[in-house]
Specification:
Order of helices and strands: EHEEHEHEHHEEEEHE
Radius of gyration: 16 Å
CATH topology: Rossmann fold
CATH class: Alpha Beta
Distance between the termini: 28 Å
Shape: globular
CATH superfamily: NAD(P)-binding Rossmann-like Domain
Strand order of the largest sheet: 3-2-1-4-5-6-10-8
CATH architecture: 3-Layer(aba) Sandwich
Number of strands: 10
Helix content: 25-40%
Strand content: 15-25%
Amino acid sequence: MRVTVLGATGGVGTSVVGQALDRGYEVVAVVRDRARLSVPDRDGLSVVTADPLDAQSIAPAVKDADAVVSALGTRTKGPTTVCTDGVRAIVATGTTARVVSVSASGAYVDEGDGIAARYVVKPLLRRLLREGFTDTRRADDLLRASDTEWTIVRPPKLTDGPTRGTYRTAVDRNVGIRISRGDVAHAILAALADPATVRHVLGVGY
């Protein structure tokens, strides 16, 4: 399998790159700055320096991919369109690859959330992180409206804990209150092999 990863220098993206290589996949890591990619050179890895928010720039990296993973995001507060622009760029390439995009359960409230999360934690988070969550929801809506074979992976709070390889999943609803970035990456790669997740949201968490 040939997997193109946008956001390859972030926590989840780096884990996707490393775990995909461990599985024997060909990986194309799209980066703005090669020096920021912490994954060492190894067989199967190609690194492309491009603007992940521009369709023409990423088109060569997306060409011939079996799957495209968007692990884009921002660490700063304030208005942002990073997730939306990244998804828009992927869709605009006209790719026929499977597209997996990382969302955030904090941007949504559903039956998978407990009472405390539904009425206390998430309303607070949605006020504090409203710009980022707005971007997340717009990206998700854009992907849902596309003709691609998409899966939206929706994790709760991310941690730097170990990759366990064991976690809970739920289709089209939230699950859990935290999960490591490594296990989100594990879930992304597992989703690529699971046709039941096509055109669905996959909630992941402990």
